[in-house]
Write a structure and sequence with these properties.
Strand content: 5-15%
Number of strands: 11
Number of helices: 19
Largest sheet: 5 strands, mixed
């Protein structure tokens, strides 16, 4: 203070770990200095300050103007190197004159000493969580897992123990022993990759990335992965998702008379508007045969803009036979009716005050809003929309038991989950590249 008095600004204290309790007294005194500098690093770095200690030998060992004694312990040398990044002076003061320590610092509460990750480590760790699980990780963790490594050995040698002699952990694999195979070091049950325990949380997170329901998650998982108890873990993953639970809807009403299922794609389409949601309106178009969805962000919902989007879809997939919509002003306008009549499209509008007539589009609007609301804050709207559409189109539908992409395009869409399966073509290509790069050998003799 201006009058020469010292007043504390902040206090800090902690207990010693079990290893630190074995330090010599001089090391414990130095540890207190290092702890204080680290604790208030953001205030001390770049400023000149004074260290006061009641242990006189430290004024020479940690002095910034003197070299560290060569006989000092390695730990002391490391601490001196750490302090050398600061601009400070160190002075001796008797312990009796250290009267400004607070009482609580003399009675600290014991706590666990945990090493805090730096900002760089936290960033790298977060990025690793977002990467898809690859077959390389599957292979490495399979060989390091004690259970799966035994299963790999059994499949390789063909010698399986009797079911009555197997323990509880091996029983699920022994029941499927006739369908187990090994492909490039990865253990497979049929076409499904058996995921090691350490990678299962990441795979569950990937399956739930678009916040599908329990049934859709199980359908998607049955095309890619398996491990003992996967169904119960999928149920727990979906039920423990706070975003999904907050968006649960009420029980539906009595079932209505269903539409006839078209025999070919894009024969009957259902259209509807969703929103306003996050400042945008969305035009939803669903193919009744394959359940293939199309979602377009709309600047406005006029009949002219709606016709523009539908004309673009007709140019890509052809002109449908039937279009089903509600009684919105866009769909009831003369301009929209003329557009459909000129293209030979039959227009069916739902009964007033009965939106369930257009139930296919209305149901998809609920799924669409649920997904975007659950993933709110994770990315931009367009990115979340693209992620949702890819997952929805590549997941078997509850009605058709087939993916919309397979019924609409005749093929599955490649997704991040395809990284799970070993790629023989990639291995062969890599071996071919390595062989072409090898220098030619010269035979002498």
């Amino acid at each position: 203070m201006p009058d020469g008095k010292e007043k504390p600004i902040a206090y800090a204290s902690r207990t010693l770990s079990k290893a630190e309790q074995n330090y010599a007294q001089i090391e414990r005194e130095a540890l207190a200095i290092v702890f204080g500098v680290r604790k208030f690093h953001q205030y001390l770095y770049g400023n000149k300050f004074t260290l006061l200690t009641d242990h006189r030998p430290l004024t020479s060992i940690l002095s910034p103007s003197k070299s560290t004694p060569s006989m000092a312990a390695a730990r002391m040398q490391r601490w001196a190197l750490l302090l050398s990044a600061h601009d400070y002076t160190i002075q001796y003061r008797k312990g009796a004159l250290h009267a400004n320590a607070d009482g609580l610092s003399r009675l600290p509460i014991p706590h666990a000493h945990e090493e805090k990750l730096s900002a760089v480590d936290v960033f790298y760790t977060s990025q690793l969580d977002t990467l898809p699980v690859s077959d390389t990780e599957i292979r490495r963790h399979t060989m390091s897992d004690p259970i799966l490594s035994r299963v790999v050995e059994m499949v390789t040698t063909g010698h399986f123990p009797a079911a009555k002699d197997a323990d509880e952990e091996m029983a699920p694999y022994l029941l499927r022993r006739h369908d187990l195979t090994i492909k490039l070091g990865c253990l497979l049950w049929g076409v499904r990759v058996i995921v090691p325990p350490k990678l299962r949380p990441r795979v569950l997170k990937q399956l739930h990335i678009a916040h599908p329901g329990i049934v859709r998650m199980k359908s998607l998982a049955r095309s890619y992965v398996w491990w003992p108890g996967i169904d119960s873990q999928i149920e727990l993953q979906a039920k423990s998702c706070h975003s999904c639970q907050s968006m649960q809807k009420e029980h539906g009403l009595a079932p209505l008379h269903p539409w006839m299922w078209p025999t070919s794609p894009w024969e009957r389409i259902h259209v509807d508007f969703a929103g306003p949601f996050e400042g945008n309106m969305y035009l939803i178009v669903i193919d009744a045969h394959s359940k293939w969805p199309e979602v377009h962000i709309m600047d406005n919902t006029t009949a002219c803009k709606t016709i523009q989007v539908l004309r673009s879809l007709f140019s890509q997939y052809g002109i449908p036979h039937i279009l089903v919509s509600d009684n919105g002003p866009q769909f009831c306008s003369e301009e929209f009716g003329t557009f459909l009549k000129s293209n030979g499209v039959k227009h069916i509008r739902s009964a007033p005050y009965h939106p369930a007539t257009n139930g296919l589009a209305e149901r998809f609007v609920q799924i669409f809003k649920h997904s975007l609301k659950s993933s709110r804050g994770t990315a931009l709207v367009q990115q979340r929309l693209d992620t949702f559409l890819l997952t929805y189109r590549n997941t078997p539908h509850a009605t058709t038991k087939e993916t919309p992409a397979m019924l609409f395009l005749g093929r599955k869409l490649r997704s991040r989950l395809d990284f799970l399966k070993p790629n023989i073509a990639g291995v062969v290509a890599q071996v071919t590249r390595c062989s072409t790069r090898a220098p030619p050998t010269t035979l002498q003799g």
